[in-house]
Every structure is written in structure tokens, then in C-alpha cells.
Design goal:
The longest helix is centred in the C-terminal third of the chain and has 59 residues. The chain has a domain of 237 residues: Orthogonal Bundle (Lysozyme). Helices cover 55% and strands 1% of the residues. Helix 10 packs across helix 14, helix 12 crosses helix 13 and helix 14 runs antiparallel to helix 15. It is mainly alpha-helical and 422 residues long. Strands 1-2 form a two-stranded antiparallel ribbon. It is flat, with a radius of gyration of 52 Å.
Length: 422
């Protein structure tokens, strides 16, 4: 398309006139100062003191964003993205990340549960005597109607059998009737609350990972022990929702099968008593499924033995194999350490001997004096004289190369007159 020259000239002249008009304009000084003041918000912001916690949070967010960018560039998936989200962004990030890695429909074997890291084993945990006490504790009948809505909501939100959650609740605190349920830590100094979440393993602890799980469920208007602030480890709703999320991330579903057994095993911890704990929890839940929910009914030992034979034997065998392997590793490490110590001791002794030789003074050689003459003792007169053997004095051989002695000249007539004899 061609533009007429007249239009080009006109546009150029109009632009020139507009530029000249702008150059000739005068702006009042007051308006200039107001505009400069408006354009300087950073000078006012610099004088504001920002609390240290906000500065630290901003740095953490910046570092998390940089790590997320690197993960995305490296081809990371949804699980890596969710793991980098802050705990307060849309509820509990750690349980959602674990669900992205291992969905609730997965059914891990007991060996997979043995290697699970959903709950880290604590240094101190409740033992058999504590659980015998909670098993024999009598529970009021009102607990059934009080906690049933919470169990149902946990099943709806996390796709976990409510009987499994209720059995864990019975196992841990006898439906919150244990005296130390709602204050401080338990007698072992590790866990607290109705579901006995661990607050000492970590960081982060098991409770720190799952305390925001209540955001994924609907809180009822009333329930037995409700706190003012949330999340609270002593709030029944918060604790039961956290337990449902933990069991779900460990592989439990609405079915009381091997996956649920593995989840109960991981809930307590991976040791020999944890195998017994999981079999008892599943046996109680299976008995409720067959005969109805009963607060104070004893656990059917046949069901416990059935779950132990099906899943506990393999887990126990794996634990014993791991223990034996660790024992051999410790023995080898101890042997290598002893060998290194022996070598170091020998080297130190050799160096000490070398230093001793280097610093030892050398004794001077004894001076040789004149040899005293040897005297032969005289024979006694009574003793017979020893036979004397004729000794001949051997002539010393002439040295090789020495001239022979000169021969004596024959006597002449003149020498015979002087006394020479032939």
C-alpha cells in the first residue's frame, strides 16, 4: 500500500508542532513536587521495620520457589510440586504429597510397610504393659454415640475404614478414657492426645506432618472434647482426622486386608511388638465387622492369630533378618576398627623405637696399650720334664720380587795371605 506524499508531509508537520508545543509548556512547581512525592513510595517503605518472622517466611518462600523451578526444569512431577508447598497452603501438604506418590487404592505388602517412612520410629514408645491396661479399661456406653460421627467423617474424607480408626482409638487411649489423654505427654514422654501422636520424632514430627488434616473434613458442631484453637493434638476431631490421613497415606482403605494391616503396623512403628500391635488392631476391627461395634468386648484371639499368620510372619521374619544383618555389619565394623587400632599401635611403637635409636649415645672405642710379655711358668722339680721336640726355625720365604743375596767371592792369592780360607 502506498501512502500519498501529502499525507506524510502533513503528519510530519503535525508531529513537529506537537513536540514544539510540549517543549514550550511550563509545569507549576507545586504539581511537580506532588508528583515526585507520589513517585517515592520506596523511601517511606524503607523506614518501616518488618518483623523477623515475616522476613524469614519470605526467604523460605523464595527458596521454595527456586527449588520448585529447578524441579520443574528437571522434569519433576506432581508429587515433587506438592512436597514443596508450605504446610498452610491448602491444608496439609505432606499427606497430599504422600497420596500422590502412593494412592489410597494401593495395597502394600508387609515388607513395603516395613520400609515405609510415614511414621518414623521414636526412641521411646508405649509397650505391652501400657496396651494391656488400655485393653482392659471399661468404657462408658456414651462414647459410642459421641465418637461415631467423627469416625464416619474420617472414612468419608480419607477413604479409610472407620472400624480401623476406632480400633486404633481403643488401642491407644481406650476411647480417650486414659487419664493422660488431654494433658501433657504420656508416661513415655513421646506422644499425646486421644490418638497418641508422636511429637518428639523428627523434625518434623508425625503430628507436625498431619496436624492440618482437619481442613479436608467437615467439623461437626459438637463432639466430646473440643478446643478453642485448631489444630490441637488434644482436640478429638483434629486428632482423629490426622489419624485417618496417616492411615490413608500408609495404604489403608475401607477393606480390612493386608493394606490396612500394614497401615496399622506403620502407625505404631516397625519393630517386633509393632507386628503384635497391628494384628490385634485388625482382629478387633474384623470382630466389629462381623458381630457389630462393641466398646467393651474382648478381642477374638482367633482373628488376631489369623492376621498374624497371614501378614505378621513375613514382617517378623524380615525384622529378624534385618537385625541379623545389622549385627553382622556391627561386628565387621568393630573388627575393622580393632584392626586399625592395632596397626596404629604398631606404627607408634616402631616410631618410638626409631626415636630411641636416634637419641641413644654411642660408646667410644677402648684404647689399645702395649701388650704385656707372656711368661711361661717354670716346671716343678717333682714333675717329669716334658720331652723336648727339636724345633727348626723355618726360614722366612723370600718375598717375591726381592733380589737374591750376593754370593761370597772366591779366595785369591792375596786374600789367602791375609787369612782367607776356601
Amino acid at each position: 500500500m502506498r501512502v500519498p506524499k501529502e499525507l506524510l508531509k502533513r503528519s510530519r508537520s503535525d508531529a513537529g508542532r506537537a513536540l514544539a508545543r510540549l517543549r514550550s509548556m511550563r509545569v507549576p512547581k507545586g504539581s511537580v513536587k506532588r508528583r515526585i512525592a507520589r513517585a517515592r513510595p520506596s523511601t517511606r517503605l524503607r523506614s518501616i521495620r518488618v518483623p523477623a518472622r515475616f522476613v524469614k517466611r519470605g526467604r523460605d518462600d523464595l527458596g521454595r520457589a527456586m527449588i520448585l523451578a529447578l524441579v520443574l526444569l528437571a522434569g519433576g512431577g506432581e508429587a515433587a510440586m506438592l512436597a514443596l508447598l508450605p504446610p498452610d497452603a491448602g491444608g496439609s501438604a505432606a499427606p497430599r504429597a504422600a497420596q500422590a506418590v502412593a494412592p489410597a487404592t494401593a495395597a502394600p505388602t508387609p515388607l513395603d510397610a516395613r520400609r515405609s517412612v510415614a511414621q518414623r520410629p521414636a526412641e521411646r514408645r508405649a509397650g505391652p504393659s501400657y496396651y494391656r491396661r488400655t485393653r482392659s479399661r471399661h468404657v462408658p456406653a456414651a462414647a459410642k454415640t459421641s465418637f461415631m460421627p467423627l469416625y464416619r467423617e474420617a472414612q468419608r474424607s480419607f477413604n479409610v475404614s472407620w472400624r480401623l480408626i476406632a480400633s486404633v482409638h481403643r488401642q491407644e487411649t481406650a476411647f480417650s478414657t486414659e487419664p493422660s489423654t488431654y494433658r501433657g505427654l504420656n508416661a513415655f514422654g513421646c506422644c499425646a492426645g486421644p490418638m497418641q501422636f508422636n511429637v518428639t520424632n523428627g523434625p518434623p514430627s508425625t503430628w507436625a506432618l498431619y496436624r492440618q488434616s482437619f481442613r479436608h473434613a467437615k467439623r461437626p458442631r459438637s463432639y466430646p472434647h473440643r478446643t478453642r484453637k485448631h489444630p490441637s493434638i488434644y482436640d478429638d476431631f483434629d486428632a482423629i482426622m490426622a489419624a485417618g490421613a496417616l492411615l490413608s497415606d500408609s495404604g489403608a482403605t475401607t477393606q480390612l486386608d493386608g493394606a490396612s494391616w500394614s497401615a496399622a503396623y506403620a502407625y505404631y512403628g516397625h519393630d517386633l511388638f509393632g507386628v503384635e500391635y497391628a494384628s490385634e488392631v485388625l482382629g478387633r476391627a474384623k470382630g466389629w465387622e462381623r458381630g457389630g461395634f462393641c466398646l467393651n468386648c474382648p478381642v477374638d484371639d482367633s482373628l488376631v492369630a489369623e492376621f498374624d499368620d497371614a501378614f505378621g510372619v513375613d514382617a517378623r521374619r524380615g525384622l529378624l533378618a534385618d537385625e541379623e544383618r545389622d549385627k553382622k555389619k556391627r561386628a565387621k565394623a568393630k573388627k575393622r576398627k580393632q584392626q586399625r587400632a592395632d596397626r596404629a599401635r604398631r606404627r607408634a611403637a616402631e616410631k618410638a623405637r626409631q626415636r630411641e635409636r636416634a637419641t641413644r649415645p654411642t660408646a667410644p672405642a677402648p684404647e689399645r696399650g702395649p701388650t704385656p710379655p707372656q711368661t711361661t711358668p717354670a716346671p716343678s722339680p717333682e714333675a717329669p720334664a716334658p720331652p723336648q721336640t727339636p724345633t727348626t726355625t723355618p726360614q722366612a720365604p723370600s718375598e717375591p720380587g726381592a733380589p737374591p743375596p750376593p754370593a761370597e767371592p772366591a779366595c785369591t792369592e792375596v786374600s789367602r795371605l791375609l787369612g782367607c780360607r776356601d
